[in-house]
Specification:
single chain; 754 residues; alpha/beta; GIY-YIG endonuclease; Arc Repressor Mutant, subunit A; Rossmann fold; 6 domains; seven-stranded parallel sheet; six-stranded parallel sheet
Length: 754
């Protein structure tokens, strides 16, 4: 009987992302398992296209139209059952295509692409395989001719096991000597995959960790769940500086003693250097790294090391949740409230959801940790008992939380200070400089000036492709759109609409950096934002220099607000918080409370007491007042009441349906038709499904990259029935040809917009 497979092809859209049947030619029959990568002829022209096998079977009769496969990747490139499970989960829960899910769970270098070889389509790895010679002892060293000292050394070194050519060279044995011994039959040589020990310069210290009584109690509360080997979720709610990382290290140590593996997620690349250092100091080469700052080769080699069992601990950002660790015993999500754990491009997944799946499948402990947990996580722990709640209420070093001063910027302006830095903050920075102590300033706006306004017509200079004002970047002498990257250089002086003079106003990190240099000419200022950290390893290098005392002031965006630990930082300033306080989205207050609490917690973490200054035009705002007091429980009580009254998560799920099209009218019409199809389909097939539909309405940013954008907001429960409903609606939307008017995307993690 002919052998057939069903595959999902690359570059599919939602509307033709289905399984296609292909015939397996005899020469490939033993090489095409489920999860395997194959090359298929697709479409009328039989163009070669990548695909993944999701089902296999036998068929007595095959239509002549069933095409044979072109080629198959080696079985070693097959998706393991664990990875295939993640692919299925992403496809089911995020409404991505099958192949989008495949490309998410495996790195670029492990993927294949079609090429022509001798006139026929075949598969080729995206990256050339990186190998190195490895030598092993095969026979005793003959006494005649008399061996050289280097040959004797080579044999002695290899008695303890095989070594790579590089390792032999480092010990004083050249490749020529080793290869000569291979010819004599003393050594055997083979090519093995190259390994890469990133951050090998960090010494293994095996530090002795001394826990406080409170930390030990937290560890004792979590260990039974780890030992049980059953799925369990816990929330570690600890104030900033309470020493959550030390609890992590001890949990990881216990996990490894059980013969299991551990995964540690951090929200920002800027936080990985400090976490990596702590893990490498304690666990050495057993630690692997996965994040977007690695190049393709580094990421592939680390991924392969994990897959082959060469690492027992993985640390990284959101994408590390897909690391192919076997026998997972512990998953830690640090600063679990951060939005960066939610992907903003397809597949639009939340790392929390994937972590829960992996913990359930492997019987692992999932530990969420934060000083300011998300409202949803704290609700599950404190109100629903779905998560075990463990608290750390005191700072590790016994230092008090920094006192917070709120400065009214309206009063500053009335007193004749038009600058971005208030007089109280300037005085505090000056005092810090005199005392040889360091300062962190948070401003969540990059650039120099944030808007250019026409003094005649009042219009803001906007991007021609996006409905947002462009931002002036003085260092580059240009206007830049932070959505599509379009630039205007040199920055204009007159309005393109009426010719009036442009007034540049607002302030960003570049502008504040200049102001600091004017106020404190001798101060060494380090600016950290997306512009200054675009180079490889820039985060690690800049933070290391700040830690060494090479800078006095660290000015940055949100990347300086969380997780950083510097002994000499005793002053924290928060600038421009009002734009976040009054931003759209139901998480606005939660984001502001978290950001302020986190950045204030960067100060006074060692022997020197800290303090914080918040600049605002709304000094009496309750969220700022609660953040200044670091009173999370009071904030939660206020916020959970608002969420329940207005029906927001955790009391429902939100499904954001986004529409984007080249023409405004047809795109809006397509969104309206989707809403109508949704109502009809729900009424006919799922009449009891609870749901509220709002819109269609323009998105907060109504146009990006010349595409008009609209949205439907659906308040629902993300159940199997609701997802089945949305699949049925998407199918009808495609059948009516509406994707030609507006492409559609679904996002269950959006904060009121996409």
């Amino acid at each position: 009987m002919p052998h057939t497979v069903q595959v999902a092809v690359n570059n599919a859209t939602l509307h033709f992302d289905k399984l296609y049947t292909y015939r397996v030619p005899p020469e490939l029959e033993s090489k095409v398992p489920v999860g395997g990568m194959v090359l298929v002829p697709f479409g009328r022209g039989d163009k070669p296209r990548m695909a993944v096998v999701l089902a296999a079977g036998e068929s007595e009769e095959l239509s002549a139209r069933v095409k044979p496969l072109y080629d198959a990747a080696p079985e070693s490139a097959c998706l393991t059952p664990d990875l295939l499970r993640l692919v299925e989960f992403l496809h089911e829960r995020t409404f991505c295509t099958w192949y989008e899910a495949v490309k998410t769970v495996i790195p670029y270098g492990a993927q294949y692409r079609p090429v022509l070889q001798d006139g026929r389509p075949v598969l080729q790895k995206q990256l050339v395989r990186h190998t190195q010679p490895q030598y092993r002892l095969a026979a005793p060293l003959p006494e005649k001719p008399r061996p050289t000292p280097t040959q004797i050394l080579a044999v002695q070194l290899l008695r303890d096991g095989p070594l790579t050519g590089e390792e032999l060279q480092q010990a004083g044995v050249s490749a020529a000597v080793a290869d000569n011994l291979v010819k004599k039959g003393v050594l055997e040589k083979e090519q093995v995959d190259k390994t890469l020990d990133l951050y090998a310069h960090i010494p293994l210290t095996n530090e002795t960790i001394t826990l406080t009584d409170e930390q030990q109690a937290a560890l004792d509360a979590l260990l039974p769940a780890l030992w049980a080997g059953k799925p369990h979720a816990a929330l570690l709610h600890g104030v900033t500086g309470s020493g959550k990382t030390l609890v992590f290290l001890e949990l990881i140590r216990h996990t490894l003693e059980l013969g299991r593996t551990a995964l540690v997620l951090v929200p920002e690349i800027s936080l990985t250097p400090q976490m990596i250092r702590r893990l490498k100091e304690n666990f050495g080469s057993r630690v692997a790294v996965q994040h977007s700052a690695l190049n393709h080769t580094e990421r592939l080699l680390q991924w392969r090391m994990i897959q082959q069992g060469g690492a027992q601990i993985v640390v990284g950002t959101r994408s590390a949740i897909f690391a192919p660790l076997q026998n997972l015993g512990l998953i830690i999500i640090d600063e679990e409230q951060e939005h960066t754990y939610r992907s903003e491009s397809s597949p639009r997944f939340d790392a929390h959801d994937v972590a829960r799946l992996r913990a359930a499948d492997s019987g692992a402990l999932l530990l969420l940790a934060s000083a300011t947990p998300s409202v949803e996580s704290y609700y599950r722990a404190a109100r629903q008992d779905r998560y075990q709640l463990v608290r750390l209420t005191h700072r590790y070093a016994g230092q008090p939380l920094p006192p917070v001063q709120i400065v009214d910027m309206r009063a500053e302006a009335a007193a004749g200070n038009p600058e971005d830095i208030s007089q109280p903050l300037a005085d505090a920075i000056r005092e810090n400089l005199t005392n040889g102590q360091q300062t962190i300033l948070l401003l969540n706006r990059r650039g120099y000036r944030t808007v250019a306004l026409c003094q005649d017509c009042g219009a803001a200079l906007k991007c021609s492709s996006c409905s947002v004002p462009m931002v002036y970047h003085k260092a580059q002498g240009q206007m830049l759109c932070h959505y599509c990257g379009k630039t205007i250089k040199p920055a204009p002086t007159h309005c393109p609409q009426c010719g009036g003079k442009l007034l540049y106003t607002g302030f960003g990190t570049q502008r504040v950096e200049e102001e600091l240099e004017n106020l404190f000419p001798k101060a060494r200022v380090l600016r950290m934002d997306q512009d200054s950290t675009s180079r490889k390893n820039a985060h690690e290098q800049l933070l290391a220099r700040f830690a060494k005392g090479e800078y006095d002031i660290l000015l940055g965006t949100q990347m300086v607000a969380k997780g950083l630990d510097f002994e000499k930082v005793t002053l924290v300033g928060v600038l421009g918080i009002d734009s976040l306080l009054f931003s759209q989205g139901y998480r606005a207050y939660e984001n502001v409370f978290s950001l302020i609490t986190q950045v204030v917690g960067r100060g006074g973490r060692a022997e020197y007491p800290g303090r914080a200054i918040i600049q605002t035009v709304s000094p009496g705002h309750p969220v700022l007042q609660l953040a200044a007091k670091q009173d999370y429980e009071a904030f939660f009580e206020e916020e959970i009441g608002f969420r329940q009254l207005c029906l927001y998560p955790p009391f429902c799920d939100l499904c954001m349906v986004g529409f984007s099209g080249e023409k405004e009218g047809p795109a809006l019409a397509a969104a309206a038709r989707f809403s109508a199809i949704l109502a009809e389909t729900a009424r006919q097939n799922w009449p009891r499904l609870p749901m509220r539909v709002l819109g269609p309405a323009p998105m907060n940013v109504a146009m990006v990259k010349d595409l008009y954008r609209f949205k439907l907001t659906i308040k629902c429960r993300n159940t199997n029935d609701f997802r089945a409903l949305m699949r049925a609606v998407l199918a009808r939307y495609g059948e009516e040809g509406l994707p030609a008017k507006a492409a559609v995307t679904l996002d269950f993690n959006a904060d009121g917009d996409m």
